[in-house]
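QA checklist item 7 of 12: single-chain prediction sanity check.
[x] sequence parsed
[x] length recorded as 672
[x] structure emitted
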Amino acid sequence: MATTGHQPAKTQQMVKRDRGMFSMSEDTAMMKQIQATHSPDGLEVEVKPLLTVINEILRRATLPDNTGVINLACRCSSGADAHSTTMAILNLVSSQKWEAKLVTSLAAFAVNYGEFWLIAQLYATNPLAKAIALLKQLPDILVHSNSLKSRFDAITNLIKAILDVTKCVVEFNELPSQYISDETPPMSAAIALIPTAAYWTIRSMVACASQITSLLGMSYEHMTATTEAWELSSLAHKVRNIHGHLMAQLTLCHRHIDERKHDDYFRMLVRLFETPHLDNLKILKVLINSKDDPLPLVDGTTKTRVGIEVLSRKIVLLLISDLDLSTEELIILTRIYQEARQRTDTHYEVVWIPVVEKSMAWNEGTKQKFEQLQSSMPWYTVHDPLAIEPAVTKYIKEVWHFQKKMLLVVLDPKGKVACRNAFRMIWIWRNLAYPFTTAKEEALWKEETWRLELLVDDIDSKILDWISQEKIICLYGGEDIEWIRRFTTLAKSVAQTAGISLEMVYVGRSSSTEKVRKIVETIMREEISHTWPDLTSIWYFWARLESMLYSKMQHGKMVDNDPVMQEIMTMLSFDGSDGGGWALISRGTAELARSKGDTVERSLKEFPEWEKESKQIGFVPALTDHLHKLHTPEHCSRLILPGISGGIPEMVVCAECGRPMEKFFMYRCCTD
């Protein structure tokens, strides 16, 4: 094909006209021309198998270090010719849907492309291929292939952009119509853009074909011109831009579809929990194993993967948390679980379901954190937290009210929810709360009275021994070490004067872990009194009190109608004070006296005033009477409750005076 010296300038003008001819804000007349070619007959074309073959051809039809394409049986020497050829192709495939137009055109393109490079690849070894190559004037191109690298690279890049747009348009056609309609905003935006995408994609095929055709018979001097490569790069930029717009809409479409699927899954979950079942497997599969993994769980004892059938017809406790688990809670729950394994009257399983948000970055660090937690648990755990359906996470948050604190949801052997959070009763009564139903919790409370055994349980076996020995026992707390020194010295002196056996135990505070740790170390070093060197025991003491409060509230109990509730509130208000001390002094099971630090300290200083009474009615009853005499209407009680969704009562009355307490919001970040 002959060319003139004015070709580069002419081509640049042509490309400028092309770029302005049909911008992304498409000219109305041009859009009408394109739409006028579109008259689908409703016949479905199976494009995916065809696209697979096309992709294989485009991938394999190459020369070493080079890639090129043959023409669409057309010769285009100007922008106007390229446009006309594109419109002619659109008219030729007018009866097809847009994705079929693209795939059909690309198939014709790929046939010529494959034929061209098949001949090129066999040229050196096959006489027939060599003869055809000579007639097609291929030898010059093959000899100078290195010099044509920039043009071949430009063709390669444009072909990739063509393929990307074609695949994207095909994917739009495969979106499930039951979850997204053509009128849905992201879909309607894509439908409006697809005719433009089809035009420029087919026009790019025409340009690629024209470039290869123009090389045949061209002199070496004209082969090395870079203008043609620049034209192809310009088209590739435009097609990639179109692809970017389409992909943005496709992402929105997939998001819309996922939301609809999640909504369907959520509604299905709600229906499942409202429907009676013969066993628990259907419920557990939906919660844990929606992907039909045959081994979705890890056995915490053997560390091997197991099927969900191991939970069949058993009471299952679902441990729900994020990856920021409380070490103390895990330690105590592990002890309780392992105790249950030794009993013959408790048969239940625990399964950890970690709540991992899809927006959370699941990197190597996150994965390692999950695996460390998983390896520390003796019960069953979910093998892959990312396999948990988002709708399950939504259900856990909206129906079971999970926020930050761990939940322990109890499912009975038929999959029915027996308790939405069994942590409270498990912290209070441990395995005695089995089978962890709300009815069992209520029955246990009916048997309870305010006594030291309820307060300390088996946190410290020495205390239980002292109770049976009818010793005077003093539990005290706070974080003022000077008050602790004064109070314990005074208490020991009074005990000696009264001739009583006194045992004292420091139980710390629910917060300020580092301060409490230092105080514990000081108490042990100076041998001030007994204490719990394991800070988990101190945490558990206060966690049980807090659990008692919420458990009572859950059953509708308040200070004015429940003596145990009043004592719980009083103890928690001691803990909510500004670090000041407090003391609870008891003898045996029934005799208990408690007060804030300054009041109990004053009572002990005034022991001579009630010493006679203590010999008559007993030390603890006499102390209680004297504390009542010192009581004044003026007081300031604080009760600090952690923010648990669905658990904070609207009104709390003061344990001292019975008036409604003011409610404040407190935000705390404590790295202590």
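[x] summary fact logged: Residues 493 and 499 are 10 Å apart (CA to CA).
[ ] second reviewer sign-off
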